[in-house]
């Protein structure tokens, strides 16, 4: 787990990139009903805006709420690191799926012009996204990003580099 704000930002950039890229491809494939190069192209083209939206949501709103909920109701500071990671990850997935499913619904309405369908699109996207996002976060993205993060930034090195004046 990140130890301070600077590490948290780096970790969030990596995790958001991984989750938004995967979920973008997943959602495009769901809507197109297939997985081919067109799906990858469409998912990649829609990725930058979705990534910015997810980063802002994560950094400014969701992480504070998720960590607050996790540490108030699910885990204590003395619990194992893995228990804290799993609790916070689960608490992050729920609001991110709700918000980003709304984002996907808005994107679909912009393309189709069918604004009256927004509530239906949003509400049907939530369970579809949740059943993909939670297992992907817990089994693939979380372990992968934690491994990459700690390989690139061993514990304590982010602050050491910042104090010495070297760019991170």
From TrEMBL:
<feature type="transmembrane region" description="Helical">
    <location>
        <begin position="126"/>
        <end position="145"/>
    </location>
</feature>
<feature type="transmembrane region" description="Helical">
    <location>
        <begin position="9"/>
        <end position="29"/>
    </location>
</feature>
<feature type="transmembrane region" description="Helical">
    <location>
        <begin position="49"/>
        <end position="73"/>
    </location>
</feature>
<protein>
    <submittedName>
        <fullName>DUF2798 domain-containing protein</fullName>
    </submittedName>
</protein>
<dbReference type="InterPro" id="IPR021529">
    <property type="entry name" value="DUF2798"/>
</dbReference>
<keyword id="KW-0472">Membrane</keyword>
<feature type="transmembrane region" description="Helical">
    <location>
        <begin position="85"/>
        <end position="106"/>
    </location>
</feature>
<keyword id="KW-1133">Transmembrane helix</keyword>
<keyword id="KW-0812">Transmembrane</keyword>
<dbReference type="Pfam" id="PF11391">
    <property type="entry name" value="DUF2798"/>
</dbReference>
């Amino acid at each position: 787990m990140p130890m301070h704000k600077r590490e948290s930002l780096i970790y969030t950039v990596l995790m958001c990139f991984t989750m938004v890229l995967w979920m973008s491809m997943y959602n495009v494939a769901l809507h197109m009903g297939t997985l081919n190069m067109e799906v990858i192209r469409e998912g990649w083209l829609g990725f930058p805006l979705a990534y910015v939206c997810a980063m802002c949501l994560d950094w400014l709103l969701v992480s504070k709420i998720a960590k607050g909920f996790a540490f108030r109701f699910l885990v204590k500071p003395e619990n194992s690191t893995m228990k804290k990671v799993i609790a916070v990850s689960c608490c992050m997935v729920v609001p991110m799926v709700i918000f980003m499913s709304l984002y996907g619904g808005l994107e679909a309405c912009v393309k189709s012009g069918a604004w009256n369908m927004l509530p239906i699109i949003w509400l049907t996207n939530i369970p579809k996204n949740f059943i993909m996002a939670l297992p992907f976060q817990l089994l693939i993205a979380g372990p992968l990003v934690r491994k990459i993060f700690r390989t690139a930034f061993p514990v304590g090195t982010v602050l050491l580099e910042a104090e010495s004046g070297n760019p991170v």
